[in-house]
Amino acid sequence: MKTPSTKNYSLNIVDNILVLIAVTLFLSGLILGFPVLKTVIMARYGSLSDYGSVGSYIGGIVGSLWSFAGIILFFIAIRLQKKELELQIQELKETKETFQIQNFESTFFNLLNRQNEILQSIEYDYNPKINMPNLFEKNQNGLEFFVYSTTIFRSLYRYCKSNNQAEKDGARQIWGLCDIDRSQLDELEIKLKSSLSEYDFVAELYLYFMNQYYQQFGHYMRHFYNILKYIRSNQSKLPNEKIKQYTSILKSQLSSAELFFIYYNGFAFPKMKEMIEEFNLNEHLRTSDLLSPAHDEFYKSKTRKEWTH
Q1: Cα separations (Å) of 112 from 49, 108, 195, 247, 262?
Q2: Helix (H, G, I), strand (E, B) or coil at 62
C-alpha cells in the first residue's frame, strides 16, 4: 500500500543558481552605491546638483541591480509555490488511492467471507433411489454437495452422449442416486441430441441440471458472479497488480468441484463466461477434469493439461 509522499520544498540546482545571482546583484548594488553615498555623507558641503547626481547614480545603477534581483527572487518564489502545489496534488492522489484500496479490500474480503458462508450453508438430503453403498452414504452439505453433484452431472452427460447401452446403464445407475425424475431422462436425451452444437448441448444440460438443484446452486452462483462484477467495476480505480492479487486470492478459495461448475456456468451465461476468461479462472482447472477435453476449446483462457512445477 502506498504511503503519502513527504513534503520536500528544497531548492534544486537551477533555483540555487538563481538565488546566487540575486544575492550577487544585491551585493553588487551595495558595493557600487556605498562609496558614493559615503562621500556625500562625509562631505561638509555639497550643492543640490551633487545630491542629484548621487540620486541618479543610485537610482539608475544600484536600483536597477536590486530590481533585477527582486524579479529573480519573485520568480524563485513562484517556482517553489508551484512545487508545493504539485506535491499537494500528488499527496491527495496517493491518499485517494490508499482510501480506494482500503475501501475495496474491506468490501472484497467481506464478499469472500459471505461466499464461504453460502457454501457452508448448502444442504442436500441424501435419499438414494437405489442401493449403491460406499458411493454416497450421508447427506451432502457444503463442499461435499459440489463433489456429489460433479459425479451426477458427469453421469448425465455420459448417458445423453453415449450410444453404448452398457455405458448408458452404468451412467443411469449413478444418475439414479439424485432426485431428478427418471421419466424425464429420455425426453432430455432427445432434446439435447437435437442441439446444433456441442456447446449448445452442454449449455442445455447445465441449465437442466441447475434447475433440479437450484435451491443449492442458485445463491452460490449469483453471489460469485457479483464478486467478479465487483472486481471488474473497480479495475479503473486500482493498479493492475492489485487486481491480479485479488483475483488470485479469489481463485485460491475455490475447490476443483467449484471450478468445474463455474466453468460450465459460463456455457449457459455469456456474461459469466466473459469474466471467467477475463480473470483466467480456468488456470487451476485441469483439462482432464472437464466433461470432455474438447470443451477447453470453447474458452480463450485455457485449463491446465497437467500439473507441473
Answers
A1: 92, 6, 37, 11, 16
A2: helix
> Which residues fall within 8 angstroms of residue 153, CB to CB, at 6 or more apart?
205, 206, 209, 261, 264, 291
Residue 126 near residue 139 (C-beta atoms within 8 A) = yes
Copy the grid coordinates of residue 71: 524579479
CB atoms within 10 A of CB 175: 23
pLDDT score of 172: 62
Beta strands in the chain (DSSP E): 123-124, 140-141
Q: CA–CA separation, 238 vs 280, rounded Å? A: 18
Domain edges within the chain: 13-97, 122-298
- In whole angstroms, give the CA distance from residue 300 to residue 38: 90
**Would you state the cell numbers that stand for residue 231, as one nine-digit string?**
472486481
What angle in degrees, to the nearest 10, is found between the helix axes of 270-278 and 256-268?
130
DSSP state of 180: S
Q: What is the DSSP letter of 295?
A: G
- Average pLDDT, 10 consecutive residues per value, the chain (309 residues): 48 71 70 60 52 59 70 78 81 78 91 94 69 53 87 83 66 56 67 77 89 89 96 89 91 93 94 93 90 90 59
